[in-house]
Structure formats: C-alpha cells, structure tokens
Amino acid sequence: MQENEQQNQDLYASYNMLARKPLMFGVPLLTLIAIAFGVVVSTGAGMLFLESIPLILITPITLICILFGLRILCENDSRAMDNLAWVVKGFALRLKVKSTVCSISPQLDAPELKKEKIHDFFKHN
Fold this sequence. Notes:
The protein is mostly helical. It has helices at 2-11, 29-49, 53-73, 80-97, 111-124, and strands at residues 23-24, 27-28. A two-stranded antiparallel ribbon has the order 1-2. It is extended. The termini are far apart. 2% of the residues are buried. This is Conjugal transfer protein TraD. The chain crosses the membrane at residues 23-49, 55-74. Keywords: Membrane, Transmembrane, Transmembrane helix.
C-alpha cells in the first residue's frame, strides 16, 4: 500500500516548485550577483582612491552583512525578497504622503484615464 502511494507521489509535478526563486547559498541568485559585484567594485574603488584600510573595507563589509541578513530572511521562503520590496514601496509611499495611513484610489482626472475614455468613445461610435 505504501509503495503504491509513494509511486503516485513521484508521478505528479509540484506546482509549488514553479513559483520558487532560484537560490544560491540561501540568497536569491540575482541579488547575490548584484551584491557580489558591488563588493568587488567598492573594494577596487576603495583601494584605488583611499589610503586607509578601514575606509576601504566599510562598504564591502556592510554589503556582506546585508547579504547574510538576506540569507536569514530567505531561509524559509524564497519569495521573501518580493515581500520586502512591497514593504519598502509602502514605506516610501507613506513617507511621500506624510501619513501612517495610506489608501490608493484611481484619480478620475488622470491623463491616462481621459485618453482611455476618448479612445472608448471613438471606438464605440
């Protein structure tokens, strides 16, 4: 009986796997590449323009700490970066409107909406 259930489980693809982000070392792949590039560039620029070792290492160490933080964040959920992006966008929007409560509604006089209404008018007449 258990062999039959195991065989049935092996036959069907998991659609949950299609939604997963590619991770390398527990960090989303594109984020890892971007931070690694930032570490290399900031170290090179620091060595080229700065004389002091502590000044050279400030940015790369900060980026590596951010990388470890992202690894901890994405440990259980590969799509945690998407959630983080929405949180940051919401925070920026709340800063922009200078309010802790933020609601989004369409503007009735937006230029895109006016163009759409004109297009619909000529399309149906």
